[in-house]
Amino acid sequence: MRSLLTVIGLMCLGVFTLSSSTANAMERYVAGVHYKIVAPEPSKTQTPHVLSFFSYACPHCSHLEPAVDKWRKGLLSNVVFERVPAQWSPLFKSMARFYYALDGLHLADQHNQAVFDEIHKKKRSLDMEGSVLAFVQTLGLDKAKFQQALNSDAVKKKMRKGKGVMAQYKIPGVPSFVVNGRYFVNVSMAGSPEQLFEVLDFLLTK
């Protein structure tokens, strides 16, 4: 009888150990350590979504961009990925305006990397409207059409909305991400660029 109880006890211990290991694996990423909660509840939309806060002017964003683009393209079709450019300074505002103009013409995904390379690899300034217009011509875009987009009411509206979203989540720096309107993460919190995307995938399942 004692032997039977011993065996049962060991079996229960094994199950407990397995359950604990499973729970630890499931919660490998912990709130307050690898990410932080920035809203009491997920946003009401039923569509999973990721806000990517960035700036063309940010060297860290430039370095991370190829990995972000690769990860974004591998997302499930029901996940919405949206970029939000920072507007903390005149330079960042100029770059945000540039992004929204490209985005409004459905050209941002196609030319984001070229913009980053122009600024951070070729070391050319794109902070003035004239330099932006000269640059987009090298991409084969119509100068007049792009200038119209830069100064459009649609871009101004997106600038106001983007600034509000930055304030809503109190974004302290870029690159950083908010998942489902509730979870904030950046490279520093995740631990490395590689782990950043693991944490993002994890948060999309919460």
Description:
The protein has a 5-stranded mixed sheet, with helices on both faces. 29% of the residues are buried. The longest helix is centred in the first third of the chain and has 25 residues, at 2-26. Helix 5 crosses helix 6 (143-150). It is of the alpha+beta class and 206 residues long. Mean pLDDT is 89; it is low at 1-25. The chain has helices spanning 2-26, 59-73, 90-104, 108-120, 129-138, 143-150, 153-168, 187-190, 193-204, and strands at 36-37, 49-54, 80-85, 176-179, 183-186.
Structural class: alpha+beta
Helix content: 55-70%
What's the total count of β strands?
5
Low-confidence segments, given as residue ranges, are 1-25
Please outline the major beta sheet: 5 strands, mixed
Strand order of the largest sheet: 1-5-4-2-3
Q: Output the helix-strand order.
A: HEEHEHHHHHEEHH
Measure the end-to-end span: 45 Å
Indicate the CATH architecture.
Answer: 3-Layer(aba) Sandwich
Please indicate the count of domains: 1
What are the key terms here?
single chain, 206 residues, alpha+beta, Glutaredoxin, 5-stranded mixed sheet, 9 helices, 5 strands, 57% helix
